[in-house]
Design a protein that fits this description.
The strands form four sheets. A two-stranded antiparallel ribbon has the order 1-5. It has a two-stranded antiparallel sheet with strand order 2-3. It has a two-stranded antiparallel ribbon with strand order 4-8. The longest helix has 30 residues. The protein is mainly α and 445 residues long. It has one domain. 51% of the residues lie in helices and 6% in strands.
Length: 445
Amino acid sequence: MKNIFKYKIIHVATLAILLLVTACETDFDNPNAATEDEAFSTREGIIAVTVGMQQVYSTSGVRWIVETPAITTREGGITTTFQNMIELEDGGTDLPNFNSNVKGLWSTMLSVMRIAEEVELNTPEIELEAGTKSGLIAYAKMFRAMCIVNLAQNYDQVIVETNPDNEALFVSREDGVRAALLLLTEAQALITTNPISDEFISEVTLGNIDVPNTINALLARYNLYVGNYDLAIAAANSVDALSTSVFAYDSQNVNPIWNRVNNTAPNFKPRDNFGLPAEFVFDPADGRLSFYLIPLEEFNQNGLPIEDLAGFFDQITTSIPIYIPDEMELIIAEANLRKASPDLVAATAALNNVLTDTDDVFGINANVAPYSGPNTVDALLNEVYKNRRAELFLIGTSLEDSRRFGRPQPGGVPMNYSEERNRNFYPFPDTERNSNSNTPADPSI
């Protein structure tokens, strides 16, 4: 991993610094010679690297985060003969360690983690406005946390700190999520003490990402994953429902899911009914169906019904949210149901806020009748699961959700396309196993 990380850090820094420097200077020897030291020792360099970190995550990273579990959990059906996609849809025990999605998700998250670690390490040594310094360090911690949990959602053991000598240690996925929660808590403390500066917003996030609300949303999501239900509820309640945080795209840095689904040679398309089995019935008037799906009445090569994709993936430059506002209501509902003393009233109220929504800031409005099913924990959890799939469609959480809600286990036999998911976790990539002797044994399924 050492050489890949170093190349990516220098490459990102060089490109970003070049854009900054060449706008105002014409007298230099080699515009492509920005060193790693320059990237991490100057104001311009550290800001450029941070912007580059965000760019790598939002383009390359988001592709793997969304696409890989989408095929495994039947959110999408393949429409290509590329072997990596065939292997993913076939699933089972035959999924190889060299599958490019398995490798791409792993290596991109570790690459972004490495860049974030360097930003976090070097920023304190640079003379910066207090709110810019706190913003850069908090942002790096936030991206580290997101990368760790993206790994924990898909692999049963994860790395929480990279190692340049290819000796990174593995921890359980649960401990990985707890490490991410600590990073987010540290980030939150930093920007509470020194609020993010206008300089940071204008040069790094460009107003696209509301860092304080994003941190709270991620705290809510990750606390839910490890069973900290009261903390999840508190964090979810603190998120401003009118605030948005998105990855923005342009003609040079295109929406990566559009690029996989809606280009002239799509690799996959969304499944009917959000990929859920027929037991999950949606009101035909549910606005989330028309928000995300365009009726197609076709099947893929394995006989899976597919649709065309709309929502956040309909144009080359459409922004993709980091979190969906109504995810917070669904976290509140689920956490209240899973507490030692379930609160069905609070859970139902939060669920109904989603079902009856007509003014979502992104336009994801179910706008249907309130919940009227059985007033039991199990029935309400099923309804929460169904609504998570509809609200959070293709956001990258589907494999985590499928396991957490106890959906049917995969049998391990490849090409069983009737299964709700065809893996529990992915095998560790051969690139990691071949370079890091600490790599654990692969999960059986």
